[in-house]
Each structure stands twice: as C-alpha cells, then as structure tokens.
Amino acid sequence: MKSFLKRSAPAYVALLFLVAIVLPTLLVTGGKVFATNQIQSRSIQMSDDTTNTSGGTASYLVQFNVASTAVVQAIIVDFCNTDPIPGDICTIPTGFTVGSTFTPGTNTASGWTAATANSNRTFELSNASGGSLSSGATVSFTITGNVNPTVTGTFYARILTFATPTLATTWLGTTDGSSLSGFTDYGGIALAITQPILVTSKIQEQISFCVYVTSCGTQAVINLGDAHDVLSISAPFVDNTSTYSLSTNASHGAVVYMKGTTLTSGSNTIPAAGATPFLYNTTGIDFFGVCSYNTSGEVPTVATDYIGTSNGGTCASTVSDTGGTGVITSLGTPYATFGYNATNTTSTYGDLLATLVSPGATVNQVALGAGVNVTQPSGIYTTTIQLIATGTY
C-alpha cells in the first residue's frame, strides 16, 4: 500500500495542478457545475443611489470587457435581491423597476433594441445582426428610466452575453433566473442603495447702506460756498463729495428715499429747486437742490427730479466744483440740473431718489447745489438730509 502511494504521488500532484488550472473557469452553484467565462472590468455606475427615484430618474451606466471571442447578439442585465450568481433563484428587489430605454455606448451604437422582462426586473439588449467581439473588447450602454429599490442596502445585477437573441429568449423563459445554459459570458455586480446627506444652510435677507464722505463711517458734513462757506450772487456753488453705497440680496432690489428741508436760517429759507429739475446756468437765482449719479457698481435708476434728463442738463459729467474752491467761472454750458421737491422731501418717508431693480451693489455721488440773489436775507443756513434705503424682498 505504501509503495502504491509512493508510485502514485506524482500523478496525484499532477491531478491537483490540473484541477487548480481548470477551477477558475468553472462556476459551481446549487450543487451544479458549468463552464463559463467571467467578463472583466465590469461595473454599473448609478446616477442616483437613493430610494427617492419614484419618477424613474436613475440612470445605470453598464460597462464590461467580454471574456470570449464570440458573436454577441444579446445582452441581459438581471437585477436580483439576493445574489449575482446565475443558477440561484432571482427575486426582484423591493420597489425596483428597470428602465425600458437605453443610451448606446461602445459596441452598442447601431442596430440594438431594448426590452424588459420578468415584471420589469430584467433588461435585454438585442441585435440580430450583431457580430463577433474579440476577447477583451469593451461593451457599454446606459439603462435609463430606472426606479431604484425602496429599501436601503445591497442589491445585485447579473450580466450575461448570448450568441443569438433566441438563446436570450430561451434563457428568459426561466423567470427566476436559475437557468445555467445558453449564455456565453457572465459577470456579477453588487450595488448599494443609501440615504443621502441632507444639508441645510440659511441665507438671511441683507442690506448694507452707508452715506459718507471719503469712506464709510465718515459723516458727510458739507460746507457749501466759497473758502469761507459763503454763497455768492455771482454764481452757484456745488459740492459733490457726498457718497452713498448700497448692496443688497433683495430679490427686487432696493429704493433710496431722500428726506429733509431746504437750507433754512430761522424763518428764512433758500427756495427748494422744486419737482421739476432746475438748470443752474444763470446767476442771481435763489435755489437749493440735489442731483445724483453713479460712480461704480450697478447703475440705479435715478428719479428724474434729481438727474435732469428732462431739460438737457446732466449731472455726472458736469458737477466738478466742490465747496471752498470758488465760484463757477463759466455759465455758458448747462452744468447740471438740480431738483428738490420740498413737498415730498418733508413728508413722512421722503422723496424717491433712486431705484436698484435687482440684487447688487452700487456706489453713487450726491451733488448739492445752491445759488442766491441779492435780496436773500443774510444768516447761517443749514439743513439735515437723510437718505433712507429700503430693500424689496
């Protein structure tokens, strides 16, 4: 007996080696053994891995490399709840519906048609004119319109290739997926359904509004006149150093209102320019007014009272003198138009100055102008002007 074992040892080792070579090409399932070639580099990429795809919005990109050099005229992707091994009974994952349409890819671009089977568990591509693919050739396509399982966790897909559509149809006759014959190559896929990450952030309503000279935080204190802050009958004076900046995320932008009185000294006043823009190209006329223009950012719509477009005057291009620099020496060209609607500017909410129609940021100059005639009573004339911004959300 011992001598027999000694003599048989080389043959026994050779048999084991042969089995080791052969086993990778055998699939054992349910006590059955059959030969198959496993497709390589196989994957199913999901566009959505959550349970919230009741509208059939999930797409599955199927990709693999065939193992055999063979004719491929049909491809089946069977989705199962338990495992990816053919021969085992396949039950549809809870709530799952496979899509009935596809987007062609590599080696599926021409002549292929899609169908579903097994109560929308199984997807089939077929092409009766399909040709031979060499071992290692890539196949890809996207199954569209899938409804993911409604239960989180793992589910599976079985990918099989067939030499003819008839073989695929015969295999589909075994509706539980337990048939072990007819297909050329095979490969299994595991997929997962998860819960998404829910993120909440808040953006609050915002408005930033600043009225200043030089920089935000510096109050605009204006001395309107010559080097001694004296108004002259020779010509008007103007100061354009007052600035307002506005930024907001309000859906419909913001409005800026102006509120205040004209220049006043006791019971004496310098007349407000009025609701109709006043063109200051004439000497010896009593007025106090405002015009406004944009310097950067979004361009607001300035109310016609304060931009002067109605009678040809402009504001941005002509207002250049500032308080303390002397009188304007040339009045041959309209310098600017100034308005100041005393009725509105002294009302509860003031008079509309500018409108920003959408979210954004804007920086604007406010030019103040004043002129007097020879009969204007002497005195120290002052006023306080508020600019009030309101966001429209």
What is the fold's blueprint, element by element?
Layout: H1 2-22, E1 26-29, E2 32-35, E3 37-38, E4 40-46, E5 58-65, E6 70-71, E7 74-80, E8 101-104, E9 113-117, E10 122-126, E11 132-133, E12 138-146, E13 153-162, H2 165-172, E14 185-193, E15 207-212, E16 237-248, E17 254-260, E18 264-265, E19 268-269, E20 274-279, E21 287-297, E22 301-302, E23 337-340, H3 342-345, E24 351-356, E25 360-371, E26 385-391
Parallel strand pairs: 3-14
Antiparallel strand pairs: 1-2, 4-5, 5-12, 6-11, 7-10, 7-13, 8-12, 9-10, 13-14, 15-16, 16-25, 17-24, 17-26, 18-19, 20-23, 21-25, 22-24
Description:
The protein is mainly beta. The chain folds into two domains: 32-193, Immunoglobulin-like, CATH 2.60.40; 207-391, no CATH class. It has three helices and 26 strands. The strands form eight sheets. It has a six-stranded mixed sheet with strand order 3-14-13-7-10-9. The longest helix is centred in the N-terminal third of the chain and has 21 residues, at 2-22. The chain is rod-shaped and about 115 Å long. Mean pLDDT is 84; it is low at 1-26, 28-35 and 317-334.
